[in-house]
Design brief:
By secondary structure, this protein is of the alpha+beta class. The chain contains one helix and ten strands, in the order αββββββββββ. The longest helix is centred in the first third of the chain and has 19 residues, at 2-20. It starts with a helix and ends with a strand.
């Protein structure tokens, strides 16, 4: 019986953690075209950092974070690391990003 209660408690913790997770997703473009596959996008929410995910061949990304609120997305693109502040929510946040270059320096903004 003890083992059953322990398993039940562990299952409840896992379920509540998944329910509280936020997600940030969208596309990355440059010059009106998809950046394609392999652009790294990492996230930092509060003090917690999340490993970078890679865009797919259509320039789409999907980052799952445990917190809701203000996050910073940092892109790894052509040897540079432009970043942008965004917010994550329980139901997810679509953030389509546009890379712009000025004087050989990249910046990122929301579409």
């Amino acid at each position: 019986m003890r083992r059953f209660r322990s398993c039940l408690a562990a299952l409840a913790v896992c379920a509540s953690t998944a329910a509280l997770a936020g997600e940030i997703y969208g596309t990355v473009t440059e010059g009106g075209k998809s950046v394609g596959e392999g652009v790294g996008i990492g996230a930092k929410c509060g003090e917690k950092g999340y490993p970078a995910v890679q865009t797919d061949k259509s320039g789409t990304y999907h980052v799952v974070v445990a917190e809701n609120g203000k996050c910073t997305l940092t892109l790894s693109y052509k040897g540079q690391s432009p970043s942008i502040e965004v917010a994550s929510y329980d139901e997810g946040a679509q953030v389509d990003l546009v890379l712009e270059v000025k004087d050989s320096k990249y910046s990122v903004r929301r579409k």
